[in-house]
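pinned: reference chain
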Amino acid sequence: MRDDVGVLAPRLSLGWRVFLTNAAVLVGVSAFLVFSPATISSPVLLSEAVVLVSAIAVTLFVNLLLLERALAPLDELRRLMQAVDPLRPGRRIELEAADADVAALADAFNAMLDRLETERRESARRALAAQEEERRRLARELHDELGQVLTGVLLLLDEADRAPAQRAAEALEEGREAARDAITEVRRIVADLRPEALDDLGLASALASLATNFERRSGIRVERRLAANLPRLSAEQDLVLYRVAQEALTNIARHAHARRAELRVEQVDGHVRVVVRDDGRGFHGAPPDDRGIGGLRERAMLVRGTVEVESTPGQGTQVVLSIPVQEP
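pinned: its structure tokens
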């Protein structure tokens, strides 16, 4: 429900109101000089100087009062802007007596609030959808991969308990191998949740490991160009760079139908850039919603970065993440 403040009533523009205010003061002063008996001689007499100073003071005071009245909607607009609470969406600014310029400024501010609230809702929706998708992926992997392996281990142990000695030994050995596979699968799932290489070996090594695992799973060859002299980044920046590269490679495997990909990390003009490019089928126009580009851009915003996506049908897609860094 929309919560408005006041009733908007546009009038003359602010410039015209200031002009008319000053014009009224000048006309009044001129009329006073024309129709009053006051005169100024040379040299100026003391009584004439007093009258002149008094007239100037009165003129300035009247001008101040009229200008304050003319500019009062700006003060009201500032006060109402400060009263807007982002945690209470739906509130909008409307003024009781606003000039056309001030009314236009209020409308622009209200439009900005509309865009911010819409984007906030969409961001929350995308974040929730991403969380649910990640939960579904984990549940599927735990059930399909780890669950089957552990079920196999249990069956082998049951067989070893009932089988003759020679077969029992074979079943136990098979169970050990299956348990090792389960441990490997658990490590892979944990690495997908939080890459240990990123904490232990740094960004370049983590990305190299990511590319290697991607090649093994997808069969798509990845050409790596990872700069070794990157500036020191924060843990949050490292994680954003890694996740954007990971998501871009995942999109290649899911959608691109590519044979080759390129993963490049470089420093250009005070920015660290991650470039992921493929030779797949590409797309025309804006990226499809299922590519998660909105999520990539939101990740980049957390570290003041930007994500640009370029694609040409039949010639592949390029994703570029750029993060500003401060030189030591």
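why pinned: Residues 100-162 form the longest helix (63 residues). Residues 5-10 have pLDDT under 50 and may be disordered.
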